[in-house]
DNA sequence: TTGCGTGCAAAGGTTTTGCATGGCA
DNA sequence: TGCCATGCAAAACCTTTGCACGCAA
């Protein structure tokens, strides 16, 4: 009888597919992408990794907190972003520019203050991994 | 030659489908729902409104600003919420409990403060109509 | 009469799932 | 050997689109 919270760690293998996908993340750190992007990029360089494999790996990385997943209003596909040096993305809020797609990590005191006030005023404990502040960054405002 | 920004108002008809959909919104004010929910509820009461018609009407209501549309991380389907008395939803932020689905309208001074600080610190002008703070409300924490 | 809204059907894109196979430890 | 990851194929969903028809103004 095994449960999710099992003490024994699930074993993991280093596979070609996973390696290629992680390479993709690192080469595209800070950039928004979809599962399709990964799939097609790998295909373009002659690596035939299956769609399902891409989805399964991205899902896993999200679960581990290494990858940020979110959805944009105008797109059916989920977006992902990998950020080198931000591997605890479930601990702080994020904001995204809907024009250039960049994601900013709001690791700031006033943001924590904000979360506390939301809790105090509305009784809502904010879930950082599922919240995305959306707007437009200064670089894109002049466009 | 007509354009989107035409001076002449597009004509609108009062139709059965639209009436039924607006009824649904009013009966479900403050509740999160999907296009599918609307479709199935109408079907359940014997009203065979087409899926496409539901989508088209919801889309239109969103464009008019009467309806809030957003996407949750874990669902492929878009979510909608109608709020009686909150017809200027593009002016304040919202927070949603991912357990019960309720949406809270953050019409509060400290929220505006927060938006200003985001602008000042990160250079991002927050778009309220596309942002959803996600978390868990007190009522659902005990569950 | 005019033109918008609807129903219908079909297509397109995204994501998941079951199963057999292959490969790493 | 044992078990996880992958590839493959199919299915499930969500959403959009084109077209012809009906109905309100």
How do the strands and helices of this protein lay out in sequence?
2 copies of one chain form a homodimer.
Chain A: H1 16-27, E1 32-34, H2 35-44, H3 51-63, E2 68-71, E3 78-81, E4 93-97, E5 103-106, H4 109-122, E6 124-126, E7 132-137, H5 138-141
Parallel strand pairs in A: 4-7
Antiparallel strand pairs in A: 1-3, 2-3, 4-5
Helix pairs in contact in A: 2-3
The structure holds a DNA duplex (25 and 25 nucleotides).
Structure summary:
Two copies of one chain form a homodimer. With 143 residues, chain A is of the alpha+beta class.
Which shape of chain A, going by the Cα principal axes? globular
Radius of gyration of chain A: 17 Å
Q: Sheet with the most strands of chain A? A: 3 strands, antiparallel
Mean pLDDT of chain A: 86
Total beta strand runs of chain A = 7
Question: Which CATH class of the largest domain in chain A applies here?
Answer: Mainly Alpha
CATH homolog superfamily of the largest domain in chain A: Winged helix-like DNA-binding domain superfamily/Winged helix DNA-binding domain
Helix percent band of chain A: 25-40%
| Strand residue percentage of chain A | 15-25%
Strand order of the largest sheet of chain A: 1-3-2
Order of helical and strand elements of chain A:
HEHHEEEEHEEH
For this structure, the quaternary state is homodimer
Structural class of chain A: alpha+beta
